[in-house]
Amino acid sequence: MLPITGLQKTTLLDYPGVLASTIFLGGCNFRCTFCHNSQFLALSDNVPLLSEEEVLSHLTKRASVLKGVCITGGEATLYPALPAFIREIKALGYLVKLDTNGTNPSILKALIADKLLDYIAMDIKADTAHYHSICGFSDSLVFSPYLSAIRESISITKQSGIPYEFRTTVCDGFHTEEMLLGICQLTGGGQTFAIQNFKDSTFVPDHTLGSFSDVMLKKFETICIPYFDSVILRT
Predict the structure, then answer these.
(1) CA neighbor of 134 nearest in space, from 33, 24, 49
(2) What is the pTM of this model?
(3) Residue 110 confidence class, pLDDT cut points 50, 70, 90
């Protein structure tokens, strides 16, 4: 059973160009300092869950209106039951977008091979030198297997043959122009790169982080444009 912690029934924001529902899965192998869903990262009896049947019932009723489903987290690829759930969604005629941190390349590769994904959004948190710290790890050596997995997922995504984006939530107090260049070098460029401006909220673990000005966001965009077919600013 998947730990479904939330369902946004209708959204125009989560799946580019598609009217969709967003399914939130709890649990994550990272503890990112800017996470907006931190209340769902450590699952417990206090976290109410929706059943797969409830979600599929909603999607069945709305199949004539909605076109897509976004599956996000937490980290959805932690769960072996994910492919079977996506098959049920695809059987209803939906496009499926997966949001992932890239730490499970084997399941990502399997989902692509089985034609269960129509769009991939992979979060790239930082450059290699600082990746561990924003993900809540004090030791870069402990984090190194995750970084290797992320590199593999980047390659798998770029070779997938389906639309994808890499995206970074930029936080004033952590990200710099040099770091954005490092992120571009880590990914090696690609189709689309989305720069998402951090916004503080109740459940964000680190309230010392801030948002960037429009001027700084444009500087980040200028750094990234040579590496990607398209760069998007999300404010």
Answers:
(1) 33
(2) 0.95
(3) very high
